[in-house]
Specification:
The structure is a homotetramer. Chain A is α/β, with parallel strands linked by helices. In chain A, 42% of the residues lie in helices and 16% in strands. A seven-stranded parallel beta sheet of chain A has the order 3-2-1-4-5-6-7, sandwiched between helices. Chain A has a seven-stranded mixed beta sheet with strand order 8-11-10-9-12-13-14, covered by helices on one side. In chain A, strand 5, helix 5 and strand 6 form a beta-alpha-beta unit. Chains in contact: A-B, A-C, A-D, B-C, B-D, C-D.
């Protein structure tokens, strides 16, 4: 019997962390063949060149798809998605996969969904059923309605996908693959590299050995004009605290220009002495960095997922993660320097929290591979009600 | 106060009939300005040049969008959609509408949805919440999840959209605008034109004055390879009955090549003496033709909608309208010459049915315009559960 | 030493005949590897599905590219070209050829040129340096200015390319590969198949054994609105002559709708008893059909190329081949029923002409392969004056 | 008589300077209507937001076209061009201009040419007939072969376009519009603004009042991997000289990443005390800055054009301007710190040169407008030999 060809489309740096353990498990499964497609900002230097880490991790790449229109506004975001549909349609036409995996809810993930569903290729959606604010919310549930098989990350998410009219037997809680990585580093927790030496970056030459925090704040697309203002609140808070800080540049998104420009302008004017900036980091290294930090600040979903498992205090800013399930490690604050400063102070002095498994217990990758190898794959469905 | 600019995207011949009365009502409303975009197969001669009827009806056209890739297979269907996203994004960027309307569930309607939603333009979905087979089913519900306001055609549909997690106050049953046209001709029911003279077409020079049937059968995209076989069953049944028949060519769709080729090949070989073929007809004329016929045969949604109101017997073939609400006028049969023949015979001799209002009572257009003029328009939402 | 990878892009039925012997020679050359890309109308059923013949001839296909926008007007022609640039860029990016071959002057051939030249891949242009009317004229010379190596079909063409500022050592007259096929069938001239049985087609069941003519008339893009009127002149002339005729449907082009529609309307109304219609024919069969005919009528470039070698009388209509080199076998006429009729009558009764080698003597394919294997390939050049 | 609609497509910052005086003259001409399209990098913040200056100068914009694919490599450059063809085709379809103007030789200018020529719109090419290295060389002459009317900048260029087979009466030397601006500021030569205050920028807070130089060095696409190395030579030379320097970031181009990255890395590491960096400047301000400087360094074509008229010493690095006509003000050097340093030293101490009119005497804009208003416009041509 020929192996099932499983095509996974990774379009951005954070999506790679969210799928990496599943990629490994698919690659190692005797009945599966991995077809890895790297697209969008995952190919771009400006967004951290995720493709380099992926290749270094030894995954062979079946196709690379340049599809990001410059401009970083809602118009180019929509056009990038349209271009993605056209490009990925070609890719699937040539690769002829038995199933395609689309990951989560970034705006361009619907391109993967359409290119697969319209060509009658069974579509698997990872990490559906969650709730957030912004355009991601629309995209995620639209992906659900285009997908045939749903591999979700929590019980809460499973229940929601079923309420959306999907057949319960096609909605399986595997946990989130990102937790697999968190588990891996949780077992060997020390920071075995010097971030400054290994990743360069720009900004202050930090003394981080006695404690540091990590910041990662992305623009929120429905508020893109305010991105610059929002990021300034965080910047002022962090500068004011004068505590060693590793700061990661945002992903590509409408408004990232506002966020990036805000950061650049702040650096130029204020030259903060306690912040060092990175573009990107290998997923495992990033988790080690988190695991050894005092807190994560910003609006990254890692704060709700990996950090739940790690028990790390998180200061979650604004409404990007609105209504997504969270464990007790998360403190929500608004875009306010004062609130942010106060919450970071609390987090730095706080103990670690109990490890939570709301997003899985660390074996999502192998579960996903096993399901892909054994479930009957179809491309036609009807709503259950 | 400036008028609200309402942008309506019509991508195909049948969509025009489904929205026409709403276009008129929007155009006539003192607080609304209509921005009509004609795209896709509605611009193409091969699919009946709907644009000509639209211009003749006096609607000014704000933009025309060529986006159909040749090939009529799932691959070109997907690429057409991607191209549509790119093109419609430009159009909305330039027109700056206050709301965009996407109609029903054809594959390319999701392009309208993405281009509007990603640019933070309030998206109104007409005719969501219904159930069918094939790719339309996925597209329709994905449109629902991308849309902010849902103007549905039946109570059944309203209930389903609410179950999909939409706020009840944003889901309004206006009835289907296509019923408005049916009501209009129902009140003046005579056939006031000679179809052969007015529309030309090809094939037998029918004597239709003593009774005729109408056939309209589209390919079903998830079965596109079998389209040719399916259409042959209908062709053989109709030829065998030797009853005067007006037959309409199918819309653009993956597989329409199979259907069209099947019809062409049959004509060439069999030269049926009782069938005359049309490419297209003005919506009102089409309804008059239906209203004066003995039965509609095929898989057009007009059989379930307009014909419910008209009380016309319908022979509905195959699973294209699977699970869509239907009144008692519809007889479902499979792709089988024998079943089709038997059902048509019954229909020809049957009385007309009572008029049913399951898809509205004929004032959908004005209701839609009034709602668009008065509802608060937003582009951000969160699932209700 | 690794083989040189030579990527050839075939975008239409006639281009295949013009390159076939070179494909064979490249495939057989020990130092070359053929990467064959089939794109555009060569993939479409409506234009004769050239891809089927190509696969039947045993050429492995490296990539298929759907890129034709429906509409057949100048606007979709331009957009098809833009889409072609995007698609072919992907293809070359993935195939990494050592050289790309673009063929002649169809509108979409410039897409191949741009996709190669902009990616710093040496570009080889086949059949540059000729002269015609219409948009082809602009495209051909623009291709020349984008290309690095020019393999032309005649001394006249070579001289012109050099005048255009190309280095003489990069401009080589190989003759036209289409002549290689003409030579092949010239040596075994009998018609060894029954066209009606082998190719089906539609229309009259001809008695062709006692003499017939062949018609192939394409729309001329700069006159596309008049295509319908032009084709009617030819149709009336051919019907009037009542001589057995094999007629080939036109290629995709702006205006082909006019031409095709004209033919379809004429067939429906006039039901000519002496014309049989084909969509396509294998290149060798087409040449055998020509070789055994009394004359070729229309505006195909085969009339000037292959028919020069075959010595076949040709009635060349209109200005599509304006100023292209021609031997004495060609009679030029305008779009006039009377002129066409008169010229066909003369041609039918005329003797065959002497074989002319103005477009080569039948070994272009092997010459081309040898040059590709041995010439130094570059992608940078400067005009010679 | 209706005014002739002249559509001008500006795709980048430098193109605006090269056409500005013609835009004014078209706008002011009683028989012409200007349709200005801003596209590509002219819309992007990263490349200096030329669109802001254009709007500030009071030109109404008929359409904005986002078309730049991220990646800045040859592959995205080609895809940007393909996308540009599709987008500009729409724009011209809607604007229905009587003529389209494409400017010079940037890679994406061929998109304008194709979109116009394929839609049978008369195409006017500005600044054809010159000679350089790199992909521009191919693009410029391909534009010539697609264009119908050629408005060139020098006698040398006119002669070359005619040699390329264009009819002499359609090739007119108007001079270069960029010289019109140079003439304008030449007459009022003082620097009437403080560059640091008006344009901000980043880097050292220069004392420029006692003399400064200007640097503008773009990547060369056929050498894009070496861009970083090349720019470092210039950076080291300029830092070493320790002379006040205004440095402009490069345009979008394959390899601009190499150049930009090279500059960024150098800044971070070396923090040069004598360099201030700008993204952009209004064309007139830029010329005033040049006019008051000691020398222009880099590979900008302004060095050969405007600086010829201004008589400013220019150190021209590398082969980007290879073989373009130049006056005596230009010193050519290779990518070598030593050569560059030496040439700058000489330039700083040199006198100004005599003003040269090889690229026009300052009335190109009005000449262009007058020709556009009076020449017969056609879209069909045949090579002259």
């Amino acid at each position: 019997m020929p192996k099932r060809k499983i095509c996974v489309v990774v379009t951005a740096r954070p999506s790679y962390s969210r799928i990496k353990s599943a990629l490994t498990a698919i690659q190692n499964h005797p009945d599966l063949e991995l077809q890895l497609v790297i697209a969008g900002s995952a190919l771009l230097d400006r967004y951290g060149n995720a493709v380099d880490f992926i290749e270094k991790d030894g995954f062979p790449i079946a196709a690379k798809v340049f599809m990001v229109l410059e401009g970083e506004n809602p118009t180019t975001m929509a056009k990038t998605t349209g271009l993605g549909v056209m490009e990925l349609t070609n890719v699937f036409y040539n690769l002829k996969p038995d199933a395609v995996i689309t990951i989560a809810d970034r705006f361009e993930t619907i391109a993967t969904s359409i290119a697969a569903a319209y060509q009658n290729i069974p579509l698997v959606h990872i990490q559906g059923g969650e709730v957030t604010g912004s355009i991601d919310e629309k995209v995620r549930h639209a992906n659900t309605k285009l997908a045939d098989l749903h591999l979700v990350s929590s019980d809460d998410a499973r229940e929601r996908v079923i309420k959306l009219g999907e057949s319960p037997e096609m909605v399986i809680n595997t946990g989130c693959p990102s937790i697999d990585l968190a588990k891996e580093i949780h077992e060997t927790p020390n920071l075995d590299f010097n971030p400054l030496e290994k990743y360069g970056g720009v900004g202050a030459n930090l003394d981080w050995k006695n404690g540091y925090i990590v910041v990662m704040q992305h623009p929120v697309t429905t508020e893109y004009k305010e991105s610059k203002k929002h990021i300034q609140e965080t910047l002022k808070a962090v500068k004011n605290l004068d505590y060693p800080t590793f700061w990661f540049w945002p992903n590509v998104d409408a408004g990232s220009d506002g966020t990036s420009n805000g950061i650049r302008a702040f650096r130029e004017l204020e030259q903060p002495k306690n912040i060092h900036f990175f573009k990107n980091m290998e997923p495992l290294d990033f988790l080690k960095l988190l695991s050894n930090s005092k807190a994560l600040v910003g609006n990254s979903s890692a704060g709700l997922r990996e950090c739940a498992y790690l028990g790390l205090p998180v200061v979650n800013i604004g409404n990007r993660q609105f209504r997504r399930s969270r464990a007790e490690n998360v403190t929500d604050v608004s875009y306010s320097q004062i609130e942010i400063e106060k919450a970071i102070k609390m987090a730095i002095t706080s103990e670690k929290f109990e490890s939570s498994t709301i997003y899985g217990n660390g074996n999502a990758g192998t579960k996903i591979a096993e399901i892909l190898a054994t479930t009957e794959l179809t491309f036609s469905k009807t709503i259950t009600y």
